[in-house]
Amino acid sequence: MVNSLSGRFLILTTIFVMLAEVLIFVPSVARFRESFLLTRLERAQIASLSLLATDMIDPALEEELLLNAGVYNVVLRRDEARQLVLSSPMPGEVSETYDLRDASALTLIYDALSRLVTPESELVRVIGSPSRDAGLQIEVTLQTGELRAAMIDYGLRILVLSAVISVLTAFLLFLAVRRLLVKPIKGVVSHMQNYAAAPEDAGRIIRPKATVRELREAEDALARMQTELTQALRQKERLAQLGGAVARVSHDLRNILTSAQLFTDRLESSEDPVVKRLAPKLVNSIARAVSLCESTLAFGRAEEPAPTLGHVNLAQVVDDVLEAEHLAIGDYDVSLAADIPPNLMLRADPEQLHRIVSNLVRNARQAIIGSGQPGHITVSAAAEETVWRIEVADTGPGLPPKARENLFQPFRGGVRKGGSGLGLAIVLELVRGHGGTLDLSQSGPDGTCFVIRLPMGDLS
Length: 460
Prior knowledge:
It is built from ten helices and twelve strands. The protein has helices at residues 5-52, 59-69, 105-116, 145-197, 213-267, 273-300, 314-329, 350-371, 401-405, 422-433, and strands at 73-77, 82-87, 96-99, 123-128, 137-143, 310-313, 334-339, 345-348, 375-384, 387-394, 437-444, 447-455.
């Protein structure tokens, strides 16, 4: 109850209403005290007028008038002279004098609080203005015991009434908050739990129906998010099914193409001029198909294995890559170069590092060959504070806009015709596995440059 939204509203409302009533209580008690004293002055004025109506009055009647007025004596000033109209023996000396004619609100509040905290009954003089212009001034003397008792009784009634009002107000607010806020919020939470049980079920998406604007906006936002998530899950499921099918097809197709590749090797030794002319093209086509199948299967694995880190000489890895690329270049006008310090040691997985550099160099070589223009590929490395910076730059035609927009996205970032776009996606995954980054620092008519940053780590 206490930890619920409605319960806290109930407690806070009770506290705030009580606080408001306390702030009202103080001036109310001050006003009650003033009214009490003014009533005593009015009674005293009536008693004095009764005496003035006759020349003489019986002492017993005078005592009864003072007792009824609740005062010990009455002094009336009708002109310049003050006249003691009614009097009786006083039990002591006057301790305080209160002038109600020009008393400010703060003065009345202060006097009221002072009276409440003073338990002893005191004899005080009260000065006021006679009602209906029956004189210039009237003074009475009275005991404060009855005044304080009346103030306490009035204050207790005010506090009880305040408590009842605060509890009633808090209860009504509790019901209102429960109806307008808590119940709709619980409904939203229930919808979220129901949706979380089967997010692919579109029938579980919340239907906004709140009447409170803020809650309606929250329900609308939740409905949009659930709709997008359901669609994304459906698309992911379809892609997963498609990926499984592609992987199975690629596996079987690779085996078929590998067998075909073995047969085509014999065609190259044929003496038939037509076969000699078409065989290399057939071999290249089959090789590309096998490469595409292998790339698809490699990417389709759940994830790349974690790198087995060791001390690797980068210059040797790059030399192996460039040597293999020299064979692939053949008669094309593409030159390769390396600018690697001979003793540069990296903490990396040698096999994965070879794949990283090989993919980037192969992409650069294919881009230059595809352009039909001569080109140059350079692999360089240098220290950069806490990381090793490895660059693979070429003087090729640069990446087209579509490839730059979908960079590192599998099946979308391919550049050459028939390419899968898996190479860069695989490279990025391998680099991240080493705790590094892969960025495209430049791509344009002057060439393309990829930058790999690998943490130096501890080589000791």
